[in-house]
Specification:
37% of the residues lie in helices and 18% in strands. With 313 residues, the protein is an alpha/beta fold. It has one domain: Inosine-uridine Nucleoside N-ribohydrolase, Chain A (Alpha-Beta Complex), CATH 3.90.245.10. Helix 1 links the parallel strand 1 (4-10) and strand 2 (30-37). Helix 1 (14-24) runs parallel beside helix 2, helix 5 crosses helix 7 and helix 9 (203-211) runs antiparallel to helix 10 (215-235). 54% of the residues are buried. Bound molecules: alpha-D-ribofuranose (RIB) and calcium ion. Alpha-D-ribofuranose binds at residues 11, 13, 15-16, 40-41, 127-128, 153, 162, 168-170, 243-244. The site of calcium ion (CA) has 8 residues, from helix 1.
Length: 313
Amino acid sequence: MAPRKIIIDTDPGQDDAVAILLALASPEDIDVLGVTAVAGNVPLPLTEKNARIVCELAGKPDTKVYAGCDAPLTRKLVTAEHVHGKTGLDGPTLPDPVMPLQDRHAVDFIIDTLRREAPNTVTLCPLGPLTNVATALQQAPDIAERLQEIVLMGGAYFEVGNITPAAEFNIYVDPDAAKIVFGCGAPITVMPLDVTHKALVTQPRNDAFRAIGTPVGQAVAEMTDFFERFDKQKYGSAGAPLHDPCVTAYLIDPDLFGGRHINVEIETGSDLTLGMTVADWWGVTDRPANATFMRDINADGFFALLTDRLARL
Ligand code: RIB
Ligand code: CA
């Protein structure tokens, strides 16, 4: 089967970095048409730089990286240096990028790519706030029906929030954008905290990254050593949750995941629950299903795939 054509929309972030590495290590499954950076974990000048750093770490300096929106549609940007560090990629010492940033805006790249490629052959993979994707949908509503799928990391239901008691970070930063995306009509698959909090980099799993014995393996292990502090402290979890790589792993082996096709709406009115993904998991409303909301993962299978693929780089 031909590799899936994807655009990765991202706010690197250590977990974004691992998701990008996994995609670039899997050419038989994934054809990365481009990487579009958005403001999120850290401001845009850093997320676009980090995206290029990661592509060079993967040995893929020809990857096309575009800078997108530097702030949410209407709200003030909220960042997450408390999780990812000042640079957004704290942990390893990685060289500044040499590869160029593309001079087109990420939103124009998304629109033009979806209009150029055959209908329903391109998958959007948002790993950060949905500002770029929503802006593209606002400027070019016709692209919604041309999408094969949107596979995104964001939201939470049983796990509730990680940035507020009710909301997950990616949705919280730009809830208006999320509302547009979840209402666009394209097939959507969601990797919420409910599943990503089960993809924990325990010490043996991080030791396996380090044991790859390559600069990529070492860098991923050092990213995780840094990134795990927040979740270990907050949740007492056994390691860092690899949120964003769940998106890439789903593209490679969807059978690693399980969930339900349900209705998911986004809270944009209440300050108390702003950005909450109101997931009708139990089907108590007659709201139409608009997303496949994942809850289960074969974590050992996920880490076996990830470690095996990272060793290729
Ligand atoms: O809440 C986790 C999400 O927020 C991940 O995508 C992480 O990279 C941050 O963007
Ligand atoms: Ca992210």
